[in-house]
Specification:
The complex is a heterodimer. Chain A has 13 helices and no strands. Chain A is mainly alpha-helical. Chain A is elongated and about 105 Å long. Classes of the chains: A mainly alpha, B alpha/beta.
Amino acid sequence: MHDIKVLEAKWRRYRRKKLLPYLTVSGVFVALSVATIVWGLQEKKQIPRNLATKVANDRPYVQASQKDTDMSTATQMKPPLLSAPIAKLQTHSDTMKQNVTPMSQALSQTPVEPVREIPVLDVETEQTNEQSPSLQVKPKVSEPKRKKRLNLHVVSSVGSKVLDEVERRFARTKDPYDALFLAKRYFRLGRYQKAALWAQKSNEVDPKIEESWLIFAKAKIKQGRLSEAVAVLEKYVGMTKSKRARRLLERLRR
Amino acid sequence: MRSRFEAAKNVFVDSIDTEDYIELHSSVAAFKQLRESIEKPLKMILLFGRPGTGKSILLNRLKEKLKHQKEIYYFDTPATNEKEFFSKLFKVLTQKELPAKTEVNFTALVNYCKELRGKRDIVILLDEAQMYGPDMMEKIRLLSDTRSVKFVVSLHKTEDEDLIAKEHFQSRIWEVIELQNASIDDLRTYIHKKLLKKNLFDTANSIKSKEMKLIYKFTGGNYRECNKMMYTIFEICEYYDLHEPAKVDYEKISPMIIEMAAIKLGYIDA
Protein backbone atom coordinates (compact mmCIF):
# COMPACT_ATOMS: atom_id res chain seq x y z
CA MET A 1 0.00 0.00 0.00
CA HIS A 2 1.90 2.98 -1.23
CA ASP A 3 -0.64 5.60 -0.13
CA ILE A 4 -0.76 4.67 3.56
CA LYS A 5 0.67 8.01 4.73
CA VAL A 6 -1.89 9.94 2.72
CA LEU A 7 -4.56 7.72 4.20
CA GLU A 8 -3.30 8.35 7.72
CA ALA A 9 -3.37 12.11 7.13
CA LYS A 10 -6.94 11.88 5.83
CA TRP A 11 -7.94 9.83 8.84
CA ARG A 12 -6.52 12.39 11.25
CA ARG A 13 -8.41 15.13 9.43
CA TYR A 14 -11.56 13.06 9.64
CA ARG A 15 -11.18 12.53 13.42
CA ARG A 16 -10.64 16.24 13.95
CA LYS A 17 -13.77 17.05 11.99
CA LYS A 18 -15.73 14.43 13.89
CA LEU A 19 -14.63 15.71 17.29
CA LEU A 20 -15.14 19.37 16.45
CA PRO A 21 -18.88 19.53 17.30
CA TYR A 22 -18.29 17.81 20.64
CA LEU A 23 -15.39 20.12 21.46
CA THR A 24 -17.44 23.15 20.46
CA VAL A 25 -20.38 22.12 22.61
CA SER A 26 -18.06 21.32 25.53
CA GLY A 27 -16.28 24.63 25.15
CA VAL A 28 -19.53 26.56 25.10
CA PHE A 29 -20.76 24.65 28.13
CA VAL A 30 -17.55 25.32 30.05
CA ALA A 31 -17.58 29.00 29.07
CA LEU A 32 -21.19 29.37 30.19
CA SER A 33 -20.46 27.61 33.46
CA VAL A 34 -17.46 29.82 34.16
CA ALA A 35 -19.41 32.95 33.24
CA THR A 36 -22.26 31.90 35.51
CA ILE A 37 -19.91 31.25 38.41
CA VAL A 38 -18.08 34.55 37.90
CA TRP A 39 -21.34 36.46 37.64
CA GLY A 40 -22.60 34.78 40.80
CA LEU A 41 -19.44 35.69 42.68
CA GLN A 42 -19.61 39.28 41.47
CA GLU A 43 -23.20 39.56 42.58
CA LYS A 44 -22.24 38.33 46.03
CA LYS A 45 -19.36 40.78 46.24
CA GLN A 46 -21.38 43.71 44.94
CA ILE A 47 -24.08 43.61 47.61
CA PRO A 48 -21.67 43.50 50.53
CA ARG A 49 -19.65 46.36 48.99
CA ASN A 50 -22.66 48.66 48.80
CA LEU A 51 -23.62 47.78 52.32
CA ALA A 52 -20.07 47.71 53.51
CA THR A 53 -20.50 50.28 56.25
CA LYS A 54 -23.77 48.71 57.37
CA VAL A 55 -22.59 45.15 57.45
CA ALA A 56 -19.20 45.80 58.92
CA ASN A 57 -20.14 48.38 61.52
CA ASP A 58 -23.86 47.92 61.84
CA ARG A 59 -24.59 51.24 60.20
CA PRO A 60 -28.14 51.77 59.00
CA TYR A 61 -28.76 53.57 55.78
CA VAL A 62 -31.37 56.00 54.80
CA GLN A 63 -34.13 54.75 52.64
CA ALA A 64 -33.41 55.65 49.10
CA SER A 65 -35.95 58.24 48.20
CA GLN A 66 -36.43 60.09 45.00
CA LYS A 67 -35.09 63.39 46.34
CA ASP A 68 -32.00 61.73 47.65
CA THR A 69 -31.30 60.19 44.34
CA ASP A 70 -32.00 63.45 42.59
CA MET A 71 -29.64 65.26 44.80
CA SER A 72 -26.78 62.92 44.92
CA THR A 73 -27.58 59.52 43.58
CA ALA A 74 -24.26 58.84 42.06
CA THR A 75 -22.11 60.71 44.44
CA GLN A 76 -23.51 59.39 47.69
CA MET A 77 -22.92 55.76 47.08
CA LYS A 78 -20.03 55.93 44.73
CA PRO A 79 -16.61 56.86 45.86
CA PRO A 80 -15.80 60.36 44.85
CA LEU A 81 -14.09 61.47 41.72
CA LEU A 82 -15.27 58.63 39.52
CA SER A 83 -17.95 60.21 37.37
CA ALA A 84 -17.46 62.08 34.11
CA PRO A 85 -17.61 65.55 35.55
CA ILE A 86 -14.70 64.66 37.74
CA ALA A 87 -12.67 63.88 34.64
CA LYS A 88 -13.45 67.33 33.41
CA LEU A 89 -12.40 68.67 36.71
CA GLN A 90 -9.16 66.75 36.45
CA THR A 91 -8.29 68.18 33.05
CA HIS A 92 -8.50 71.56 34.53
CA SER A 93 -7.07 70.38 37.74
CA ASP A 94 -4.49 73.08 37.97
CA THR A 95 -6.94 75.91 37.48
CA MET A 96 -9.46 74.14 39.64
CA LYS A 97 -7.02 73.76 42.43
CA GLN A 98 -6.46 77.42 42.26
CA ASN A 99 -10.12 78.23 41.76
CA VAL A 100 -11.86 75.61 43.85
CA THR A 101 -11.11 76.98 47.18
CA PRO A 102 -13.07 75.88 50.15
CA MET A 103 -16.13 77.93 50.76
CA SER A 104 -14.71 79.15 54.04
CA GLN A 105 -12.47 81.53 52.12
CA ALA A 106 -15.41 82.77 50.10
CA LEU A 107 -17.33 83.34 53.23
CA SER A 108 -14.58 85.21 55.01
CA GLN A 109 -15.16 88.30 52.84
CA THR A 110 -18.88 88.50 53.28
CA PRO A 111 -20.29 90.42 56.22
CA VAL A 112 -22.17 88.47 58.77
CA GLU A 113 -25.80 89.32 58.71
CA PRO A 114 -28.18 88.88 61.53
CA VAL A 115 -30.11 85.72 61.39
CA ARG A 116 -33.52 86.13 59.98
CA GLU A 117 -35.92 83.64 58.62
CA ILE A 118 -36.29 84.04 54.95
CA PRO A 119 -38.53 81.77 52.98
CA VAL A 120 -36.57 79.62 50.62
CA LEU A 121 -37.50 77.00 48.15
CA ASP A 122 -37.48 73.57 49.63
CA VAL A 123 -35.10 71.09 48.19
CA GLU A 124 -37.94 68.86 47.02
CA THR A 125 -39.48 71.49 44.83
CA GLU A 126 -36.32 72.99 43.46
CA GLN A 127 -36.13 70.95 40.32
CA THR A 128 -39.82 70.73 39.63
CA ASN A 129 -41.16 74.21 40.36
CA GLU A 130 -39.88 76.41 37.58
CA GLN A 131 -42.90 78.72 37.46
CA SER A 132 -42.82 80.10 40.96
CA PRO A 133 -39.45 81.65 41.34
CA SER A 134 -40.28 83.38 44.58
CA LEU A 135 -38.77 81.84 47.58
CA GLN A 136 -41.67 80.69 49.60
CA VAL A 137 -41.71 78.31 52.39
CA LYS A 138 -44.27 75.79 51.72
CA PRO A 139 -46.05 74.11 54.54
CA LYS A 140 -44.70 70.79 55.40
CA VAL A 141 -46.99 68.40 53.74
CA SER A 142 -46.38 64.81 54.19
CA GLU A 143 -45.88 63.96 50.60
CA PRO A 144 -45.70 60.43 49.66
CA LYS A 145 -42.09 59.54 49.41
CA ARG A 146 -41.21 58.27 46.05
CA LYS A 147 -38.97 55.39 46.70
CA LYS A 148 -36.51 54.25 44.17
CA ARG A 149 -36.49 50.53 43.93
CA LEU A 150 -33.09 49.12 44.61
CA ASN A 151 -31.88 45.64 45.11
CA LEU A 152 -31.12 46.52 48.62
CA HIS A 153 -33.02 45.96 51.73
CA VAL A 154 -32.28 49.11 53.67
CA VAL A 155 -33.45 50.20 57.01
CA SER A 156 -34.63 53.73 57.50
CA SER A 157 -33.35 55.43 60.56
CA VAL A 158 -33.22 59.04 61.58
CA GLY A 159 -32.21 58.44 65.09
CA SER A 160 -29.45 60.35 66.70
CA LYS A 161 -27.50 57.17 67.12
CA VAL A 162 -26.98 57.02 63.38
CA LEU A 163 -25.76 60.55 63.20
CA ASP A 164 -23.44 60.06 66.13
CA GLU A 165 -22.05 56.97 64.57
CA VAL A 166 -21.39 58.71 61.27
CA GLU A 167 -19.83 61.67 63.05
CA ARG A 168 -17.49 59.37 64.88
CA ARG A 169 -16.65 57.63 61.65
CA PHE A 170 -15.91 60.91 59.93
CA ALA A 171 -13.55 61.84 62.70
CA ARG A 172 -11.71 58.63 61.97
CA THR A 173 -11.86 58.40 58.21
CA LYS A 174 -12.40 61.98 57.04
CA ASP A 175 -14.67 60.67 54.33
CA PRO A 176 -16.29 63.71 52.67
CA TYR A 177 -19.36 61.70 51.81
CA ASP A 178 -19.98 60.92 55.43
CA ALA A 179 -19.91 64.64 56.13
CA LEU A 180 -22.21 65.21 53.18
CA PHE A 181 -24.59 62.58 54.51
CA LEU A 182 -24.69 64.38 57.85
CA ALA A 183 -25.24 67.71 56.13
CA LYS A 184 -28.23 66.35 54.23
CA ARG A 185 -29.61 64.58 57.26
CA TYR A 186 -29.40 67.69 59.45
CA PHE A 187 -30.89 69.80 56.67
CA ARG A 188 -33.86 67.45 56.47
CA LEU A 189 -34.23 67.60 60.21
CA GLY A 190 -34.31 71.36 60.00
CA ARG A 191 -31.04 71.80 61.82
CA TYR A 192 -29.60 74.16 59.27
CA GLN A 193 -26.68 75.36 61.29
CA LYS A 194 -25.39 71.86 61.67
CA ALA A 195 -26.22 71.17 58.04
CA ALA A 196 -24.08 74.08 56.95
CA LEU A 197 -21.34 73.01 59.31
CA TRP A 198 -21.14 69.51 57.92
CA ALA A 199 -21.44 70.70 54.37
CA GLN A 200 -18.48 72.92 55.02
CA LYS A 201 -16.53 70.03 56.54
CA SER A 202 -17.23 67.92 53.47
CA ASN A 203 -16.12 70.77 51.28
CA GLU A 204 -12.90 71.20 53.20
CA VAL A 205 -11.98 67.57 52.54
CA ASP A 206 -13.05 67.61 48.90
CA PRO A 207 -14.05 70.94 47.38
CA LYS A 208 -15.09 69.25 44.16
CA ILE A 209 -18.30 67.77 45.57
CA GLU A 210 -21.08 69.95 44.23
CA GLU A 211 -23.63 68.76 46.73
CA SER A 212 -21.62 70.21 49.61
CA TRP A 213 -21.76 73.66 48.00
CA LEU A 214 -25.46 73.45 47.33
CA ILE A 215 -26.39 72.11 50.76
CA PHE A 216 -24.32 74.81 52.38
CA ALA A 217 -26.01 77.52 50.32
CA LYS A 218 -29.47 76.13 51.03
CA ALA A 219 -28.73 75.85 54.72
CA LYS A 220 -27.63 79.46 54.74
CA ILE A 221 -30.78 80.48 52.91
CA LYS A 222 -32.84 78.66 55.49
CA GLN A 223 -30.97 80.49 58.18
CA GLY A 224 -31.70 83.82 56.44
CA ARG A 225 -28.11 84.48 55.55
CA LEU A 226 -28.77 85.21 51.94
CA SER A 227 -25.64 87.17 51.26
CA GLU A 228 -23.49 84.31 52.38
CA ALA A 229 -25.44 81.92 50.23
CA VAL A 230 -25.16 84.22 47.21
CA ALA A 231 -21.44 84.70 47.75
CA VAL A 232 -20.83 81.00 47.93
CA LEU A 233 -22.94 80.26 44.91
CA GLU A 234 -21.36 83.00 42.88
CA LYS A 235 -17.96 81.67 43.74
CA TYR A 236 -18.92 78.14 42.77
CA VAL A 237 -20.62 79.16 39.53
CA GLY A 238 -17.59 81.19 38.64
CA MET A 239 -15.39 78.19 39.10
CA THR A 240 -17.45 75.45 37.57
CA LYS A 241 -20.36 77.00 35.63
CA SER A 242 -22.63 74.57 37.43
CA LYS A 243 -26.18 74.72 36.13
CA ARG A 244 -27.76 73.71 39.40
CA ALA A 245 -25.85 76.32 41.30
CA ARG A 246 -26.70 78.93 38.67
CA ARG A 247 -30.37 78.06 38.84
CA LEU A 248 -30.39 78.40 42.62
CA LEU A 249 -28.53 81.69 42.38
CA GLU A 250 -31.01 83.09 39.89
CA ARG A 251 -33.87 82.21 42.15
CA LEU A 252 -32.16 83.90 45.06
CA ARG A 253 -31.62 87.04 43.07
CA ARG A 254 -35.25 87.23 42.08
CA MET B 1 8.33 -12.43 4.83
CA ARG B 2 4.59 -12.85 4.58
CA SER B 3 2.07 -11.26 6.80
CA ARG B 4 -0.56 -13.20 8.65
CA PHE B 5 -3.12 -10.83 7.22
CA GLU B 6 -2.39 -11.73 3.60
CA ALA B 7 -4.47 -14.88 3.75
CA ALA B 8 -7.31 -13.03 5.39
CA LYS B 9 -7.15 -10.41 2.66
CA ASN B 10 -7.44 -13.02 -0.08
CA VAL B 11 -10.50 -14.57 1.53
CA PHE B 12 -12.48 -11.52 0.60
CA VAL B 13 -11.58 -11.28 -3.07
CA ASP B 14 -14.94 -10.76 -4.72
CA SER B 15 -16.09 -13.77 -6.73
CA ILE B 16 -19.20 -15.80 -7.49
CA ASP B 17 -17.41 -19.10 -7.06
CA THR B 18 -19.74 -21.56 -5.40
CA GLU B 19 -16.91 -22.68 -3.18
CA ASP B 20 -17.10 -19.29 -1.56
CA TYR B 21 -20.81 -19.59 -0.98
CA ILE B 22 -21.72 -18.99 2.66
CA GLU B 23 -24.95 -20.33 4.01
CA LEU B 24 -26.80 -17.71 5.96
CA HIS B 25 -30.38 -17.61 7.15
CA SER B 26 -31.40 -15.21 4.43
CA SER B 27 -29.55 -16.96 1.64
CA VAL B 28 -30.83 -20.38 2.70
CA ALA B 29 -34.37 -19.09 2.69
CA ALA B 30 -33.94 -17.51 -0.75
CA PHE B 31 -32.39 -20.68 -2.16
CA LYS B 32 -35.21 -22.79 -0.82
CA GLN B 33 -37.84 -20.48 -2.25
CA LEU B 34 -36.13 -20.42 -5.63
CA ARG B 35 -35.85 -24.17 -5.75
CA GLU B 36 -39.51 -24.59 -4.91
CA SER B 37 -40.49 -22.08 -7.57
CA ILE B 38 -38.60 -24.01 -10.21
CA GLU B 39 -40.61 -27.09 -9.33
CA LYS B 40 -43.86 -25.22 -9.86
CA PRO B 41 -45.38 -24.98 -13.32
CA LEU B 42 -44.27 -21.40 -13.71
CA LYS B 43 -43.10 -19.70 -16.85
CA MET B 44 -40.88 -16.98 -15.40
CA ILE B 45 -39.37 -16.34 -12.01
CA LEU B 46 -38.01 -12.96 -11.15
CA LEU B 47 -35.06 -12.67 -8.80
CA PHE B 48 -34.19 -9.10 -8.04
CA GLY B 49 -32.26 -7.04 -5.52
CA ARG B 50 -29.60 -4.39 -5.16
CA PRO B 51 -26.13 -5.08 -6.59
CA GLY B 52 -24.11 -7.08 -4.12
CA THR B 53 -27.01 -8.86 -2.44
CA GLY B 54 -25.92 -12.26 -3.75
CA LYS B 55 -28.08 -12.89 -6.83
CA SER B 56 -25.34 -14.23 -9.06
CA ILE B 57 -23.84 -16.55 -6.47
CA LEU B 58 -27.31 -17.80 -5.63
CA LEU B 59 -28.03 -18.66 -9.27
CA ASN B 60 -24.64 -20.31 -9.52
CA ARG B 61 -25.30 -22.39 -6.46
CA LEU B 62 -28.71 -23.32 -7.78
CA LYS B 63 -27.16 -24.54 -10.98
CA GLU B 64 -24.54 -26.54 -9.06
CA LYS B 65 -27.15 -28.15 -6.86
CA LEU B 66 -29.62 -29.01 -9.61
CA LYS B 67 -27.35 -29.78 -12.53
CA HIS B 68 -27.69 -33.48 -11.98
CA GLN B 69 -31.46 -33.34 -11.48
CA LYS B 70 -32.60 -30.92 -14.11
CA GLU B 71 -31.58 -29.52 -17.43
CA ILE B 72 -30.43 -26.17 -16.12
CA TYR B 73 -28.31 -23.59 -17.88
CA TYR B 74 -26.74 -20.41 -16.52
CA PHE B 75 -26.32 -17.39 -18.83
CA ASP B 76 -23.99 -15.31 -16.65
CA THR B 77 -23.01 -12.74 -19.23
CA PRO B 78 -25.87 -11.08 -21.05
CA ALA B 79 -25.65 -11.14 -24.81
CA THR B 80 -24.90 -7.87 -26.50
CA ASN B 81 -27.40 -8.48 -29.30
CA GLU B 82 -30.27 -10.75 -30.27
CA LYS B 83 -28.23 -12.80 -32.71
CA GLU B 84 -25.75 -13.74 -30.04
CA PHE B 85 -28.47 -14.53 -27.53
CA PHE B 86 -30.44 -16.77 -29.86
CA SER B 87 -27.27 -18.52 -30.93
CA LYS B 88 -26.67 -19.48 -27.36
CA LEU B 89 -30.30 -20.45 -26.94
CA PHE B 90 -30.21 -22.52 -30.11
CA LYS B 91 -27.24 -24.45 -28.78
CA VAL B 92 -29.03 -25.08 -25.46
CA LEU B 93 -32.27 -26.20 -27.05
CA THR B 94 -30.92 -28.23 -29.96
CA GLN B 95 -27.65 -29.12 -28.34
CA LYS B 96 -25.99 -28.32 -31.62
CA GLU B 97 -23.85 -25.47 -32.77
CA LEU B 98 -25.44 -22.97 -35.05
CA PRO B 99 -23.85 -23.23 -38.47
CA ALA B 100 -21.65 -20.34 -39.45
CA LYS B 101 -23.19 -17.40 -41.21
CA THR B 102 -26.70 -18.44 -40.26
CA GLU B 103 -29.21 -16.68 -38.10
CA VAL B 104 -31.88 -18.12 -35.94
CA ASN B 105 -35.39 -17.75 -37.15
CA PHE B 106 -37.33 -16.78 -34.07
CA THR B 107 -40.64 -18.20 -35.21
CA ALA B 108 -39.03 -21.49 -36.02
CA LEU B 109 -37.41 -21.48 -32.63
CA VAL B 110 -40.71 -20.92 -30.88
CA ASN B 111 -42.29 -23.77 -32.84
CA TYR B 112 -39.37 -26.01 -31.96
CA CYS B 113 -39.89 -25.20 -28.28
CA LYS B 114 -43.57 -26.10 -28.55
CA GLU B 115 -42.59 -29.48 -29.85
CA LEU B 116 -40.32 -30.01 -26.86
CA ARG B 117 -43.16 -29.56 -24.42
CA GLY B 118 -43.55 -32.59 -22.23
CA LYS B 119 -40.30 -34.06 -23.49
CA ARG B 120 -37.80 -31.78 -21.86
CA ASP B 121 -37.96 -29.44 -18.92
CA ILE B 122 -35.38 -26.76 -19.47
CA VAL B 123 -34.48 -24.10 -16.93
CA ILE B 124 -32.48 -21.10 -18.07
CA LEU B 125 -30.99 -18.75 -15.52
CA LEU B 126 -30.59 -15.27 -17.00
CA ASP B 127 -28.28 -13.11 -14.94
CA GLU B 128 -27.95 -9.33 -15.32
CA ALA B 129 -31.20 -9.32 -17.27
CA GLN B 130 -31.55 -5.56 -16.86
CA MET B 131 -29.16 -5.35 -19.78
CA TYR B 132 -31.62 -7.01 -22.15
CA GLY B 133 -33.75 -4.58 -24.05
CA PRO B 134 -37.56 -4.61 -24.07
CA ASP B 135 -37.73 -6.40 -27.43
CA MET B 136 -35.48 -9.14 -26.19
CA MET B 137 -37.54 -9.52 -23.06
CA GLU B 138 -40.69 -9.83 -25.15
CA LYS B 139 -39.16 -12.67 -27.13
CA ILE B 140 -38.07 -14.34 -23.92
CA ARG B 141 -41.65 -14.07 -22.73
CA LEU B 142 -42.93 -15.69 -25.91
CA LEU B 143 -40.48 -18.54 -25.50
CA SER B 144 -41.60 -19.03 -21.90
CA ASP B 145 -45.20 -19.27 -23.13
CA THR B 146 -44.27 -22.53 -24.90
CA ARG B 147 -43.91 -24.05 -21.40
CA SER B 148 -40.93 -26.07 -22.41
CA VAL B 149 -38.47 -23.46 -21.22
CA LYS B 150 -38.56 -21.84 -17.81
CA PHE B 151 -36.68 -18.60 -17.26
CA VAL B 152 -35.29 -17.35 -13.97
CA VAL B 153 -34.63 -13.69 -14.63
CA SER B 154 -32.22 -11.94 -12.31
CA LEU B 155 -31.92 -8.18 -12.40
CA HIS B 156 -31.03 -5.20 -10.32
CA LYS B 157 -33.79 -3.50 -8.43
CA THR B 158 -34.52 -0.25 -10.19
CA GLU B 159 -35.95 2.87 -8.67
CA ASP B 160 -39.03 3.11 -10.82
CA GLU B 161 -39.24 -0.64 -11.67
CA ASP B 162 -40.83 0.07 -15.01
CA LEU B 163 -39.89 -3.29 -16.36
CA ILE B 164 -41.88 -5.07 -13.70
CA ALA B 165 -44.76 -2.68 -13.74
CA LYS B 166 -45.59 -3.25 -17.41
CA GLU B 167 -48.83 -5.20 -17.48
CA HIS B 168 -48.11 -7.58 -20.35
CA PHE B 169 -44.86 -8.63 -18.74
CA GLN B 170 -46.09 -8.70 -15.18
CA SER B 171 -48.69 -11.28 -15.96
CA ARG B 172 -45.96 -13.68 -17.05
CA ILE B 173 -44.05 -13.42 -13.82
CA TRP B 174 -45.63 -15.81 -11.40
CA GLU B 175 -42.99 -15.66 -8.72
CA VAL B 176 -40.93 -12.77 -7.43
CA ILE B 177 -38.03 -13.31 -5.06
CA GLU B 178 -36.31 -10.29 -3.63
CA LEU B 179 -32.86 -10.39 -2.07
CA GLN B 180 -31.99 -7.73 0.46
CA ASN B 181 -28.86 -6.58 2.20
CA ALA B 182 -27.78 -8.66 5.16
CA SER B 183 -28.64 -7.87 8.75
CA ILE B 184 -25.76 -7.21 11.13
CA ASP B 185 -25.97 -10.75 12.46
CA ASP B 186 -25.89 -12.21 8.97
CA LEU B 187 -22.95 -10.03 8.08
CA ARG B 188 -21.08 -11.07 11.20
CA THR B 189 -21.76 -14.73 10.35
CA TYR B 190 -20.71 -14.13 6.77
CA ILE B 191 -17.34 -12.65 7.74
CA HIS B 192 -16.65 -15.23 10.44
CA LYS B 193 -17.57 -18.19 8.27
CA LYS B 194 -15.47 -16.93 5.38
CA LEU B 195 -12.44 -16.68 7.65
CA LEU B 196 -13.14 -19.95 9.42
CA LYS B 197 -13.36 -21.73 6.09
CA LYS B 198 -9.68 -20.87 5.62
CA ASN B 199 -8.83 -21.78 9.24
CA LEU B 200 -8.19 -18.15 10.21
CA PHE B 201 -9.62 -18.50 13.72
CA ASP B 202 -7.57 -15.77 15.39
CA THR B 203 -8.36 -13.30 12.67
CA ALA B 204 -12.06 -14.12 12.94
CA ASN B 205 -11.91 -13.53 16.71
CA SER B 206 -10.13 -10.21 16.28
CA ILE B 207 -13.29 -8.64 14.83
CA LYS B 208 -15.23 -7.65 17.93
CA SER B 209 -18.81 -6.53 18.21
CA LYS B 210 -18.06 -2.80 18.22
CA GLU B 211 -15.88 -3.06 15.11
CA MET B 212 -18.53 -5.20 13.47
CA LYS B 213 -21.07 -2.43 13.99
CA LEU B 214 -18.68 0.02 12.39
CA ILE B 215 -18.20 -2.26 9.37
CA TYR B 216 -21.95 -2.70 9.09
CA LYS B 217 -22.47 1.02 9.30
CA PHE B 218 -20.21 1.64 6.32
CA THR B 219 -21.29 -1.31 4.14
CA GLY B 220 -24.98 -1.32 4.94
CA GLY B 221 -24.99 -5.11 4.96
CA ASN B 222 -24.12 -5.38 1.28
CA TYR B 223 -21.97 -8.45 0.61
CA ARG B 224 -19.98 -6.93 -2.21
CA GLU B 225 -19.26 -3.80 -0.22
CA CYS B 226 -18.37 -5.98 2.74
CA ASN B 227 -15.87 -7.95 0.64
CA LYS B 228 -14.25 -4.74 -0.52
CA MET B 229 -14.17 -3.36 3.01
CA MET B 230 -12.65 -6.47 4.56
CA TYR B 231 -10.12 -6.79 1.78
CA THR B 232 -9.00 -3.19 2.32
CA ILE B 233 -8.91 -3.59 6.10
CA PHE B 234 -6.63 -6.59 5.88
CA GLU B 235 -4.58 -4.89 3.22
CA ILE B 236 -3.86 -2.05 5.65
CA CYS B 237 -3.20 -4.53 8.45
CA GLU B 238 -0.80 -6.39 6.21
CA TYR B 239 1.13 -3.19 5.51
CA TYR B 240 1.38 -2.27 9.20
CA ASP B 241 2.29 -5.84 10.08
CA LEU B 242 5.25 -5.69 7.72
CA HIS B 243 6.41 -2.08 8.20
CA GLU B 244 4.94 -0.64 11.41
CA PRO B 245 3.97 -3.51 13.69
CA ALA B 246 3.31 -1.13 16.61
CA LYS B 247 0.23 0.17 14.82
CA VAL B 248 -1.50 -3.17 14.48
CA ASP B 249 -3.14 -5.12 17.24
CA TYR B 250 -3.42 -8.85 16.65
CA GLU B 251 -6.10 -9.23 19.28
CA LYS B 252 -8.43 -6.65 17.85
CA ILE B 253 -8.88 -4.77 14.59
CA SER B 254 -8.68 -1.13 15.58
CA PRO B 255 -11.41 1.31 14.58
CA MET B 256 -8.67 3.49 13.11
CA ILE B 257 -7.90 0.88 10.46
CA ILE B 258 -11.59 0.37 9.71
CA GLU B 259 -12.06 4.11 9.28
CA MET B 260 -8.98 4.33 7.10
CA ALA B 261 -10.40 1.59 4.90
CA ALA B 262 -13.70 3.46 4.73
CA ILE B 263 -11.87 6.61 3.66
CA LYS B 264 -10.00 4.70 0.97
CA LEU B 265 -13.22 3.21 -0.40
CA GLY B 266 -15.06 6.52 -0.30
CA TYR B 267 -17.52 5.73 2.48
CA ILE B 268 -16.10 8.64 4.45
CA ASP B 269 -15.50 12.00 2.87
CA ALA B 270 -12.39 13.12 4.71
